[in-house]
Amino acid sequence: MTHSSLPLTSPSIADLLPDFDADIDHASLNGIDPDVNLITFSQSKYFNRLLTHDPHVGLSVLSHNIRVLDLFLDSLATITNTLATEKNTTYIIYSHVERIYKELEQLGIKDNDPLDVHQVSQFDQYHYHGTESVAEATKKLGIETPPKTILSSSSHRVLDIGAGLGGPSRYLAELTGCKVTAIEMQEDLHLVATDLTRRCGLSQKVTHICGDILKYDIGEAGKYDFIVSWLVFLHIPEKKRLFEKCFGYLKASGQMYVEDFWKKSEFLPEEKEILSERVYMRDPPPSDLDYIAQIKEAGFDRVEFDDVTDSWSDFCKQRAESYRKLKERHVRVHGKDVYEEQDAFFDAMDFLFHQGHLGGCKLIATK
Ligand SMILES: C[S@@+](CC[C@H](N)C(=O)[O-])C[C@H]1O[C@@H](n2cnc3c(N)ncnc32)[C@H](O)[C@@H]1O
């Protein structure tokens, strides 16, 4: 489709979409990087309205302003492309994000009630060993943890990549008083994360961004003392670009902490299939040596690699067993479909670790 094929005489945007605030939305549209494949919530609401509008009228409205149209077409192409090529990879990876609200309801906590980080952290950590692992990372990295007073806060700035429900970000901010930028690609997770952070009274400390770390420009090169990321890099095959981006966001001598999978030895075809279909890994993970080499190639000076396979393997075994023991309770709270999906996933992870080819690691890379 070329721009010139579109009708150029058109009613104004304000005529057709009376509550459309041209200035605000125009400003946000101008801010869109044509290369993004995820747009912010307010932008997506606007695009959705245009898309669901009568297409003819919608296009006429867009032709009103060629700059808007350019951005629209670019974004539309990228969205279409994303849906087509990333359907089962990185767009919607985690389903049933509402589970956390059902768990809170079981504790008598209603929507919009204020929350305590320690209450919610039982349910908002999508990685192994929950807050224990976050506390351990804080110590290892030496994130300032000033004594707790009303005014206490750490001067450290942390970027949490693939924040999920925001659990690790909130826990870090609560524990240390540091400021966290939490970037999460999946919009529903991002929205729940933002809601939980507000209800925990941590919005001043944790800033949530919805975007793909590879595409979204946080615009704060060299500003972060630490990057942290729990079980996210496994979903991102473009490691070279990822590590280069991370390197760019860190201050001199800044540190990147990553928990991830690695390849201990060759996977069987069946394992590869599970990694792709159930764990949403487009490529199997790298070996320990490849992982370290790729991080160093991005410019990092030192890389510490800690093999935690045994501990994660035990965790997965126990998780699968205890989940199944409480089948009746989980079915009652979440429904049969959700129970079965979770059960199959926990089982698949237990199987993968049991096979002995998948490894777990904690990495610290220093700029
Ligand atoms: C296993 S969850 C971990 C969530 C969180 N780190 C935690 O430990 O609770 C992986 C998360 O990474 C997010 N993710 C995957 N690829 C991403 C990307 N390219 N940019 C931002 N987030 C991404 C997923 O949407 C998902 O929420």
Automatic annotation (TrEMBL):
GO BP terms in the entry: methylation
Catalytic activity: N,N-dimethylethanolamine phosphate + S-adenosyl-L-methionine = phosphocholine + S-adenosyl-L-homocysteine + H(+); phosphoethanolamine + S-adenosyl-L-methionine = N-methylethanolamine phosphate + S-adenosyl-L-homocysteine + H(+); N-methylethanolamine phosphate + S-adenosyl-L-methionine = N,N-dimethylethanolamine phosphate + S-adenosyl-L-homocysteine + H(+)
Gene Ontology MF terms: phosphoethanolamine N-methyltransferase activity
Pathway this chain belongs to: Lipid metabolism; Phospholipid metabolism; phosphatidylcholine biosynthesis
Catalytic activity, EC: 2.1.1.103
Pfam families: Methyltransf_25
Domain Methyltransferase: 158-254
UniProt cross-references to SUPFAM superfamilies, sorted A to Z: S-adenosyl-L-methionine-dependent methyltransferases (SSF53335)
UniProt keyword list: Methyltransferase, Transferase
CDD domains membership: AdoMet_MTases (cd02440)
PANTHER family: PHOSPHOETHANOLAMINE METHYLTRANSFERASE, PHOSPHOETHANOLAMINE METHYLTRANSFERASE ISOFORM X1
Record's protein name: phosphoethanolamine N-methyltransferase
Biological source species: Capitella teleta
Species lineage: Eukaryota, Metazoa, Spiralia, Lophotrochozoa, Annelida
